[in-house]
Design a protein that fits this description.
The chain is built from 5 helices and no strands. The protein has 96 residues and is an all-alpha fold.
């Protein structure tokens, strides 16, 4: 039975390949065939630990005047009671 390669092993193969530059060298370190290494090498791989994570803080949004949207479209943006009921039914189907 073939051994499955885990996601961590795939990442490790790519990290090693950037350093060692050959499939055979990575294969020796990982204990797998060079063809296996070749299958999982990602061009332009970036180590996930080297990726800078930026945190974005969303400030409170200003209030929206819905009347601004009504003016160019008239009542096109307003749903009838029947349409509102249809939307409720659709949401029930989507949430299943």
């Amino acid at each position: 039975m073939a051994t499955r390669i885990t996601e961590d092993q795939k990442i490790q193969m790519n990290i090693l390949y950037k350093e060692l530059k050959t499939y055979a060298a990575v294969a020796r370190v990982m204990g797998v065939a060079a063809s296996t290494v070749k299958r999982y090498i990602i061009p332009d791989f970036v180590n996930p630990e080297e990726i800078e994570v930026k945190t974005i803080q969303i400030k409170e949004l200003p209030p929206v005047d819905i009347n601004k949207f009504k003016q160019p479209f008239g009542n096109l943006c307003l749903l009838s009671q029947e349409e509102k009921e249809e939307v409720k039914e659709l949401w029930k189907e989507l949430l299943v």
